[in-house]
Each structure stands twice: as structure tokens, then as C-alpha cells.
User: Fold this.
Amino acid sequence: MAYTFEDFKREWTREKLAEMTPEERLRGLSPEERVRSLRPEDRLLELSNEELVRLKDLLERRTSGQR
Assistant:
């Protein structure tokens, strides 16, 4: 199989990404795209105590059938 221009672009992009800092790599992503890549437990670690209490209350209402 021949080496195509698409192969070259993919290889070049991977090399440039490897040279970039994490901040540079994330710069083009929206906050939603950044969060989507995190595991749920990592997302929870970023919440404040107040946000965790609100989440706990919401989950308790949800499991008790209230909305």
C-alpha cells in the first residue's frame, strides 16, 4: 500500500500533538468536551463541598421518586 498524503498529515499531526503541552492540546476544546473525557470519579473531585451537598440532595430525591 502506498504512503498517501493523508498518511503524511496523520503522522505530522501526531508528532505535533506529542510536542504540545496539555494546556495547548486542550485549548481547542470546549468545556463540555473536556469534561466528557474525564472519568466520573475525576469529575467529582473537582466539585466544591456545596456542589457535592446539592448533588447528594438531588440523588436522594431522585432515588425516593421525587423530581
Remarks:
- The chain has two domains: 1-36, 39-67.
- The chain has a mean pLDDT of 91.
